[in-house]
Amino acid sequence: MKAIVMAGGEGTRLKPLTCCMPKPMVRLLDKPLVEYTVEHLEKHGIVDLAFTLMYMPSSIIGYFDGRKGVNIEYYIENEPLGTAGSVKNASGFVDGAFLIISGDALCDIDVTDAAVFHKNTGATATIILKKMGEPLEYGVVISNGDGRVERFLEKPGWEDVFSDTVNTGIYILEPEVLELIPEGKRFDFAKDLFPLMLRKGMRISGYVASGYWCDVGNIESYIKAHEDLLRGEVNVKIDAKNASGVYVGEGADISNSALIQAPCYIGPGAVIGEGARIGMFSAVGKGARVASRCNIKRSVLLEGASASRNVKLSGCVVAAGSSIGERSSVYEGAVIGERCVLSGDNTVSPRVKIWPDKRIGEGVSVNENIVWGYGERAGFLGKNGFTGDTGADLTPLRLGRIFGAAAEYMSGKSVALSSDGADFSNAVIKQAAGIFTQSGVDVFTMNGAVKPVCAQVAQMLGAGLCVSVRTQKQNKLSADIYEPSLYLLSKDARKKIESKYFAQGERIAHRACGRESVIGAAEELYTGSVYGGFDAEAIKKAGLCVAVRGGREIDAFASRVLSKCGVRIVDFNADARGVGRGEDAAFAASVNRSGASCALYLPDGGVVDEDGFASIVYYLIFASTEGGEVKLPSGVSRSAVSLAQMCGLKVSYVSEEESLLSMSIDSRRMLFDGVYALCRLALHMARTGTTIAGIASMFEPRHRRVREINCGWDDIGRVIKTVYQQGGAEAGEGLRMNEENGYGYICPHPTHPKIMIRTEGFSEEFAEELCEKYSDMVKKILKK
Questions:
Q1: CA atoms in the 13 A half-sphere facing the CB of 337
Q2: What count of Cα atoms within 13 Å lies in the side-chain half-sphere of residue 695?
Q3: Do 719 and 628 contact (CB within 8 A), yes or no?
Q4: Cα–Cα distance, 114 to 121 (Å, whole number)
Q5: pTM of the complete model
Q6: 233 pLDDT band (50/70/90 cuts)?
Q7: What domains are there in the chain, each with its CATH number?
Q8: Closest among 319, 303, 309 to 389, alpha carbons compared
């Protein structure tokens, strides 16, 4: 016997799972629904198959290309022909009695026994029936004692129900039935063909099957089908080793501390982290990743999906390639479409559906379906560009869109690109260079150049924007986007780039491509900008010696620049305490990886951390500032404020951008260029005879606390306004509350729905006390 597999369904009620594939290709335990159908037919010796296709036919054809064990012919509908019409379209395949079966239902019904029943009853058509407790979603059929169908009704209401046997959509037909189906017209079995046959007195038999059958027609039945497979209620092959009800695919990596409850499925190459819990009837698909302390209950993660730490999934479906951020919860009946990103601290309410390729911002609760748009909000670009997970929110597609928006903003101008030299960073820079040049932007590329070098060389070459890419730990990528003379991305630039990001699509390429120039002499250009006009003789005359940490490229770079400026260099190891006792080094320096700041180690064993180094830089700025007032960021340290006051300057609080714009370019450079700041510090010490210990003695001890409080986007303005109205706050970029022996600072997070609280005090205890005070203040406002 031959079989026709009806596989043209779109699966509207299964969306968003079927947005990217036809219904028969939806996966159950890493296998398409239609594959279960084909394997079932093979088991009964039916290997000559015809597939009727319409919606996304190439998906099915591509999957079965080269499939051994069966012979498949494909019949594609150009327009909907109905269930019977699609079979008529494949009439050339038929040469005798044949089976019709759905490619999007799961069953193990004995079709061999049904074929024998069909032959013995002498029927022209046999409908395979199944007893169902709630038949409203199916065609109800009643047959007499010898199996002859007497009456049926498609999808009745309860008032119409006259039987508990329903039509499974599996039929056995004699070839003459095809003559009743009109050519090229929409025609259905239940609505048109079978009523016509009854009117003509043709025998239709009803075979009541005892096996398993499930029409996987909606999300509820899709999740239920997984449960039934794992319970062993369906006689099908599961392609995994069965260890007491835990099905484990080849290459799966399961932590010894994970709790795995049978029955469940963990697909090939899947990773289950420490302390994760995989509950009964859950399915983790091929290559999916469940991080530490996740709790997965009766949920399905499809191929390549991931759940970050402390995620809770309950009775939901996460489609292929989607990423659920830390501490997020997705509830019963919810579906996350393919390639979606939940950034973290998200809640998805029951039965909510999110269509593919959406990105949900951190802290956002989703209470209704998201179908259109990108699921993003303005504000994803911070003052320093963006940082994200390369396997989740920073996919090549999204990176391309961000760079495309920046390229449109800079069209006809020039940009400078740099990387930390890591392979992935270099690949991202190549992607960016291609997009920028397509948009008519000239590109200066500097592989292996840190941000301060890129910024300075960009200024020398006339570039208006910089992109510096760094690869960080745990798949994190940082892309600093900034204006070279400001070292930040201005608020105006952020708004314009984001506007173009959300409105992209009108223009892909510029008429004239930009040119890419690789700057091989970036270090030489940078070094020349430092010592050109620099009083190196004063440093040499003072005999200043500095110990620079060895072993890293950034340290070797710093040593070369300092040496060029007249500083005598000695090396030291990572343990720098006591440096200078055996040498005459004034101090030791360790430049951070980005080149933006330093830590200093004193001969007496004292340490000036990066925050303290920032205070030293402010001291150098204030010492050369003319005028009675200085504008500082609202969140600046107490040390910087006290140093300004010691220099006779009046302090006013503004945004960081306003503060930088009020300074000279040289002052801005010191704040963001650690190597240049070291050179300026050495020159100051040589000219004045000041020691690091002497400068550090001017600082107030720094005891700091930082806290973040989650809130909704709509809460942010209300919180800041209420705190300000309570009095005692100075408004700039956020609110600063000066206290005796300390201060508090409250501001919105630049890219996430959070309130940031930072406090400083004369002691650890007082800093903590202030942090509790302002945290409680914010929490009380949020509760109102």
A1: 23
A2: 27
A3: no
A4: 11
A5: 0.59
A6: very high
A7: 2-215 (3.90.550.10), 240-366 (2.160.10.10), 386-527 (3.40.120.10), 544-696 (no CATH), 703-783 (3.30.310.50)
A8: 309
